[in-house]
Amino acid sequence: MAGVEGEKHRQRMADGMDLGLLGDSVGPAVRHLRNLLTSRIIAAYEPYGLRSGSHSTMALIAANPGCSQSEIARNIGMDKSIVVAIVDDLEKRGLAERQRSTEDRRRNALMLTAKGRGLMLELDNLGRTVEAPIREALSVEEVQHLISLTRRAIDALMASEAE
Questions:
Q1: CA angle 80, 83, 86 (to 5 degrees)
Q2: Long-range contacts of 29-33 (CB under 8 A, 24+ apart)
Q3: How many helices (H) and strands (E) does the chain have?
Q4: Contacts from 50-53 at CB under 8 Å and sequence distance 24+?
Q5: Is 120 within 8 Å of 62 (Cβ atoms)?
Q6: With the CA atoms of 139, 44, 127 and 57 taken in that order, what torsion angle do they form, in degrees rounded to the nearest 10?
Q7: Among 145, 147, 131, which Cα is nearest to 36's?
């Protein structure tokens, strides 16, 4: 294995800082991107007073009417108790509803209200505005490839936890 100093291609930040060992690490790159996006999303969503993760929760409920809180937690990578608190908040605001599942009475089936769907779309537009610099720097195909690779990486880590 070549030493750090022997590498031919060194990864550098936009300001020229050499990333050293971090240049070939997935975690620090994804964390940096996540941190940049998260801080901007929090600022954009702040006027709505929603909990972090509310938009993702609403988007999954809209795409999967009748899904459970556990399914939401698994698919957004959050603790179940946090998702329960998010759904509680959405329900209090009239954005989502819990209904007893007809298949399993212990389970809540989640649905968005019309008001929730409207707010979800509004938040989605704000999120796309936050993502605009990424979408402008990459082609449509590259954006889709980035999303696809990220999803595959998530699936790989989730599968390794199940083993």
A1: 155
A2: 30/150, 30/153
A3: 6, 2
A4: 50/89, 50/123, 51/85, 51/86, 51/89, 53/78, 53/82, 53/83, 53/86
A5: yes
A6: 150
A7: 131
Tokens describing residue 88: 């509680």
- CATH among 3.40.50.2020, 3.40.50.80, 1.10.10.10, 2.102.10.10 for 35-131: 1.10.10.10
pLDDT in tens, 1-49: 444 444 445 677 667 778 888 888 899 889 999 999 999 999 999 999 9
Alpha-carbon distance 70 to 21, whole Å?
Answer: 37
Per residue in 103-139, pLDDT tens? 777 778 999 999 999 999 999 999 999 999 999 999 9
DSSP structural state of residue 104: -
- Encoded tokens for 109: 């089936």
